[in-house]
Amino acid sequence: MTTRWLSAEEQRAWRSYISATSLLADAIDRRLQAEAGMPHLYYSILSRLSEAPDRRLRMTDLAEALKITRSRLTYAVARLEKDGTVGREGCPTDRRGHMAVLTDEGMALLERVAPAHVETVRTAVFDHLTPEQVGQLEEICGTITRAIQSGDPGTPGEDLPWRRRSCSS
Amino acid sequence: MTTRWLSAEEQRAWRSYISATSLLADAIDRRLQAEAGMPHLYYSILSRLSEAPDRRLRMTDLAEALKITRSRLTYAVARLEKDGTVGREGCPTDRRGHMAVLTDEGMALLERVAPAHVETVRTAVFDHLTPEQVGQLEEICGTITRAIQSGDPGTPGEDLPWRRRSCSS
DNA sequence: GCGCAGTGGTTCAAGTTTTAAACAATACCT
DNA sequence: AGGTATTGTTTAAAACTTGAACCACTGCGC
């Protein structure tokens, strides 16, 4: 099978995507690091917990929601626990399980930091998009998410003959 | 000034964006790690160089193109040099400067790996988007990029009263 | 020409994060 | 019971990032 290269339009969109996501991730991380002393992922953990019933979630559910490995989550929660923003409890119904619980201190941190974070997201993104574009963004990102999750990793391997095209960043 | 929280639609779009970018970055990194033994950023360096006149670029220009710090680039190029895919040369016109140069070996690696990478991007993204959506994606990402680059980091600070809303991940 | 601010790029030290593999404990199924 | 699958942690190693300090050079004003 010959390689299905990106068209010129796709190429442009892709480059644009790479720039935007890279810049945005950096901007958010920097801001959050300054305001809350933690990177975006850690903030997301607190945020998810704050919305969960009883401010607590099973580790696996949390990892699932954030699309990260359990190992990574364990590490992150360990740090948050040291910070005092998250606690750990055994799960009553499944003794293997553990719940991460947002502490009052964690909630307070979130309340203090959230406005700044929202402002970052707003000034970097939503202030400049029309309502239609917001809908388009959700639609496109949802499509990407589903495509990846329905596992569809593209056929591996297949060393193909080179035909001078862009290598898609 | 009171916090301008995200609307429900913005909230959904944002969550969707977070999931998609996180999953996509992971998928690309995993694939590239398997095929080329390097993460996406490093591949991007090779790719950019392959498109540059004479397969070479000034370090600063490369850092600029990839939106990363010079320090980070120095580290990355050092590794690529160790791998043999990139070389370093002094800049003829400015003796402070250095050029990163794609070696034949680097080019060969790129040629070997590009099809798999393009396939990843395609199956995760472009295979599922309409041409209109490709245009929308470019437009939206371009807007975000410009918003961030025109510095506009949102007013820092401002501890605001909490009104139970989502903390935007 | 000289001094000096600015640029290009690297180095260094420190810390953070990530990964993969192995592991213990428990649940579930038959 | 017994085997398998989950849950979540641990461990050790490696990879990466950061920020500050730093050197070499340029280019400008005087």
Task: Give a short synopsis of this structure.
With 169 residues, chain A is mainly alpha-helical.
Structure write-up:
Two copies of one chain form a homodimer. Chain A has 169 residues and is mainly alpha-helical. Chain A has one domain (11-148): Orthogonal Bundle (Arc Repressor Mutant, subunit A), CATH 1.10.10. The first copy, chain A, is built from six helices and three strands; from the N terminus they run ααβααββαα. Chain A has helices at 8-36, 40-51, 59-66, 70-83, 104-124, 131-149, and strands at residues 56-58, 86-90, 98-102. A three-stranded antiparallel sheet of chain A has the order 1-3-2. In chain A, helix 1 (8-36) runs antiparallel to helix 5 (104-124). The longest helix of chain A has 29 residues, at 8-36. The first copy, chain A, is globular, with a radius of gyration of 20 Å. Residues 153-164 of chain A have low confidence and may be disordered. At the A-B interface, helix 1, helix 2, helix 5 and helix 6 of A face helix 1, helix 2, helix 5 and helix 6 of B. Chain A binds a DNA duplex (30 and 30 nucleotides) through residues 39, 58-60, 63, 69-76, 78-79, 91, 94-98.
Question: Mind sketching the topology for me?
Answer:
2 copies of one chain form a homodimer.
Chain A: H1 8-36, H2 40-51, E1 56-58, H3 59-66, H4 70-83, E2 86-90, E3 98-102, H5 104-124, H6 131-149
Antiparallel strand pairs in A: 1-3, 2-3
Helix pairs in contact in A: 1-5, 3-4
The structure holds a DNA duplex (30 and 30 nucleotides).
Offer a few descriptive terms.
homodimer, 169 residues, mainly alpha, Arc Repressor Mutant, subunit A, DNA-binding
